[in-house]
Amino acid sequence: MPVGLFRVCLLVITAIVNHPLFFPKENGTVPENTEEIIQKMKEREESLRLEQLRLEQEIADQEATQKALEKAAVLVEESKEEKVRWDMWTALSMVIFLLIELWRQDFQEGNWPDIGGEEDDMAVLGKAFKGVAFPDKAVLASFYEKRILGTTGDMARMREMVEGFADDLLEALRSVCNRDADMEVEDCMGVGSMYENWRVRKPFVCDLIVPFAPPEPYCFRCQTWCSGDSFPPDEQGYGTIKVCRADEDATGCICDKTKLGEDMLCLLHSQVSNTRPSSEMEDLLCFKNTQYLDADQVMKWFQIAVTKAWNRISHKYEFDLSFSLLDSPGALKIKFKSGKLIAFNLTPVVQYENSDVYFISHFPRSSLAADIPSSTHWFLTFAVYERRFIQLVSKTLPANACHVSCLQILSFLHGKQCSLTGSSGLTNYHLKTVLLHLLQARPSQDWAPEKLDARLQDMLKFLEKCLHEKKLYHFFIGNGKVPAELGFPIIFQRAEPLNLFRPFVLRRDIYRKTVDTFHEMLRNMSALINEYTVHIPLAHTNGIRKESL
Questions:
Q1: Which intervals hold domain Mab-21-like HhH/H2TH-like (predicted)?
Q2: What is the pLDDT of residue 58?
Q3: Which residues pair with 323 in a beta bridge?
Q4: Which stretches does DSSP call E strand in 251-385?
Q5: CATH ID of 123-248+281-532, from 3.40.710.10, 3.30.460.90, 2.30.30.240, 3.40.50.360
Q6: What's the CA angle centered on 490, arms 489 and 493, to 5 degrees?
Q7: Using CA atoms, how far apart are residues 169 and 314, in angstroms rounded to an integer?
Q8: pLDDT (tens digit, 9 = 90+) per residue, 96-133?
């Protein structure tokens, strides 16, 4: 009990002592503390407001970022869909490109689309061919027998005479040349229409090519337009010939490529085999300050050598020999005392590697031919392979096949028309190229002698199609179907086809003249043939027509 009262009293005393009224001085600071608290609360409120604004800004930024991410995701999704569509179009384009490339390669292998039946061929003919009276079989046979067949014997006799004289002349040429310094001349070869038996127009001219090689220790290194380096379009069909020492590349020596010290000596080459002076290369018929063979220098050397050779053997012959054409350095002319003339071409050539393709120094020019890029550019001739191809195909054709007859008749008609209206861009080589394409495209039985008129029409149709498209491809270049028996170099088979009518694109005046001459020849064909044809009874002609029907 006392303890409880004590606790109550203690509590009352403590309350009285701690009452604020007993401390007036201390309580006088309350108002001041209140204002300070209010100020602090305002500052706190301001900081909270700023923090709220900062948080709101962060939330807004997060929302904007979220929207940007969502938009980016949408764009990515759309781009994926677009990419899928683009990949589809890309794949489709690649498929189309591959199909076109496969077609182009097939086209190159054939060098010309397969030729269908006569009804299909007629569709490519222009208006000029319609209404043309084409000679029938009997008229063509009579014309061929009277005008063309009789010239074969004359050609054989002329070939024999020219070849014999050319062999004698070249033998004399070897004897007058310096074997240690001059070019080495090999035996000549006959090429062209006279040796393929389809030359019809006089004067008959034999074309002979003479391969030559440099003296030891030099050799020729040939480079063509299709050997890897890029050649301009106007230099396609050409190549260059570099004169080198035979051991320059074979030994692999670097003494010519690296500066050796004064106290060092190459054990493979002596000091004599150092860089050759310019005068020595000019003696090797190279262009000035180069190692490339100069066609003009070669022809000058050859003309001088032929003149010396003729002076040595002229006493054995009863005729004169002279150069006949200034623009054709290899053109020679034999003149007998009776006034009879025999012309032939003797042209130096360089063999391409171990093939029968040759670089020819000068080629017969035509109005269609472009200017030679330079005298160091040599034109390539495939005349030997062309002759072999005709001989090879002839073995598979029927007896007395009409392929040569077609070419002879077409060559005669074109030559006759040019003599009336002037020359055109077409040459006999173009006509022969047409025949080579048809020989490869047509079955052997289509060249039977009784189908002369049909095959002649094929050649005219093919030629008109080529003129219309301004495209006539070289038979061998780019042709993957050349018979393997010929041993034709694969580098030319894999090359891009060479368009012989490309100059027509650049020379519209010559193209117009050529087309007009061709159409005029078609219209005059019957008159030109009938002029040299024996009269054939009408009943006989009608009978032949009925049999053909």
A1: 403-477
A2: 82
A3: 332
A4: 319-323, 331-336, 341-351, 358-360, 378-381
A5: 3.30.460.90
A6: 105
A7: 9
A8: 766 675 565 544 444 444 444 433 443 444 455 666 77
